[in-house]
Amino acid sequence: MTVTSEATAEPLTAAPALAAVEVTKGFPHRRRGFQRVLGETSFSIREGEFVTIIGPSGSGKSTLLKLLAGLEAPDSGRVELAGEPVTAPSRRLGVVFQQHVLLPWLTAKQNVLFALEAHGGSDRSASERERLAEHWLELVQLSDAKDLKPGQLSGGMQQRVGIARAFALESEVLLMDEPLGALDALTRHTLQLQLLKLSEQEKRTFVLVTHDVDEALLLSDRILVLSQGPEAAVLKDVKVPFPRPRDRDAVESSSDYLALRRELLGLLTSGS
Ligand SMILES: Nc1ncnc2c1ncn2[C@@H]1O[C@H](COP(=O)(O)OP(=O)(O)OP(=O)(O)O)[C@@H](O)[C@H]1O
């Protein structure tokens, strides 16, 4: 099924930071030989926007995020970053995955520093890199644990190191694939608020993949709902109207909240 995206219909008031232009993507399939996962999909994300991609399981959310990150190439169409084609991963596109791969022999701070050194370390002095690492670890409330190694940190703390590391790299766009997906409900709840605060303080563009409708409503300016695959596309582009800065209570007690939540859950279950 190919669904026309409504996302492109909305007038752009700021430069598109990231755009998917008629992208398609498929993979070899055991029985069918080949399966097209994403049908022709187009949308634009403005500079400074927080956009979340939700959709039924297996609809192609992670695949789409990998295309946006330049980690996979589309079969047709293109991804553009500020008008330039994205053909490979770059420092301008940061990525956070569900499982952070922290180097087990390095401390939390050394993990952040290692990434800073690997990604253009020569642009900054050693003391600047130190300052950045400390700054981001403080913002995710890990100053006290900065000298501990991953094996000494809880899952939520490791996830926060990964988030600090991704933010420290200061990419223009931060793409996050279920960054809180592997966490227990309470830790997830707390980290959602930290992510909200960080994203509101930072002037950059965010793209999040999540299964969690409440997380999407709390964090996003816009939610792109993917249709049920195969050949998924953007079924609906939902604007999230809650004013910023946000807090969870204000968002969840807003008169629009329940209606939007119901609409999103309806779209996810109907998928068409
Ligand atoms: N490298 C690959 N090779 C073959 N098939 C793949 C590959 N990557 C993804 N797929 C298939 O593409 C489809 C979409 O996968 P994807 O992980 O993008 O979906 P998703 O919406 O992120 O799923 P979920 O919500 O369950 O995480 C699935 O059927 C998956 O098996």
Describe the structure.
The protein is an alpha/beta fold and 272 residues long. The chain is 34% helix and 24% strand. The chain has a six-stranded mixed sheet with strand order 6-7-8-3-9-10, sandwiched between helices. The protein has a four-stranded antiparallel sheet with strand order 2-1-4-5, with helices on one face. Strand 9 (222-226) and strand 10 form a beta hairpin. Mean pLDDT is 89; it is low at 1-12. Keywords: ATP-binding, Nucleotide-binding, Transport. It comes from Nesterenkonia flava. InterPro entries: AAA+_ATPase (IPR003593), ABC_transporter-like_ATP-bd (IPR003439), ABC_transporter-like_CS (IPR017871), ABC_transporter_ATP-bind (IPR050166), P-loop_NTPase (IPR027417). GO terms for molecular function: ATP binding.
CATH fold title of one domain: Rossmann fold
Total number of helical segments?
Answer: 8
Order of helices and strands: EEEHEEEHHHEHEHEEHH
CATH level 1 name of one domain: Alpha Beta
Radius of gyration: 19 Å
Name the overall outline: globular
Q: Mind telling me which CATH architecture of one domain this is?
A: 3-Layer(aba) Sandwich
What's the mean pLDDT score?
89
Q: Helix proportion of residues, in percent? A: 25-40%
How is the main sheet built?
6 strands, mixed
Determine the structural class based on helices, strands and strand pairing. Answer: alpha/beta
| Low-pLDDT runs | 1-12
User: Beta-strand level of the residues, as a percent range?
Assistant: 15-25%
**Distance N terminus to C terminus?**
9 Å
**What's the arrangement of strands in the largest beta sheet?**
6-7-8-3-9-10
Bound molecules: adenosine-5'-triphosphate
Count of extended strands: 10
InterPro entries: AAA+_ATPase, ABC_transporter-like_ATP-bd, ABC_transporter-like_CS, ABC_transporter_ATP-bind, P-loop_NTPase
Protein name: ABC transporter ATP-binding protein
Keywords: ATP-binding, Nucleotide-binding, Transport
Pfam families: ABC_tran
